Target: YciI family protein
Amino acid sequence: MQYLVNVIDSRADSGTAEEAAAIDEFNDKLREGGHWVFAAGLAHPSASTVIDGRGDEPVLTDGPFVETKEFAAGFWIIEATDLDVALALMAEGSKACNRRLEVRPVHTEA
Model:
């Protein structure tokens, strides 16, 4: 099963060189264990655009969907046999990136 893991932060561009090295090491561990699918950092929410295409014409709005102090600063998509395995792995991921993480199962059935 796949899991989306959101990296939760409240500070823009707050990562350190030490955290980046720890994340790289953790990512290598995910790859070696067959858990790696994809990961990336995200731009600050102020760089986002919200699109609402439910009407006759799409409406584009600058900025984040919701105003909040915390935001998704990055994410992983991992493969794990079950939630317990995903949580154990990402406890290490939280330590590596020095941030709180949100783990969510990905629905793969139509």
The longest helix spans residues 17-32. The domain at 2-105 is CATH 3.30.70.1060 (Alpha-Beta Plaits).
